[in-house]
Design brief:
By secondary structure, the protein is an alpha+beta fold. The protein contains 2 helices and 3 strands; from the N terminus they run E-H-E-H-E. The chain has a 3-stranded antiparallel sheet with strand order 2-1-3, with no helix packed on it. Helix 1 crosses helix 2. It is globular, with a radius of gyration of 11 Å.
């Protein structure tokens, strides 16, 4: 299965608790931090909720 590289590009100031919880569940804590996650519908849904805060790339 493919992997996704998710990078946090916006901070948590002014965001809802749900958006903060989604980012932290993905493992994102600081601006500029990146994580590698599998490309599953669960992670895609979490990314969709915070798409304005992250960038997503295909990872090898």
């Amino acid at each position: 299965m493919a992997n996704l590289k998710i990078t946090l590009v916006r901070g948590f100031a002014g965001k809802t608790e749900v958006q903060k919880a989604n980012a932290q569940s993905l493992g994102l804590r600081k601006i500029g931090q990146s994580v590698i996650r599998e490309d599953t519908p669960v992670y895609r849904g979490m990314i969709d909720k915070i798409r304005h805060m992250v960038t997503v790339e295909e990872a090898d």
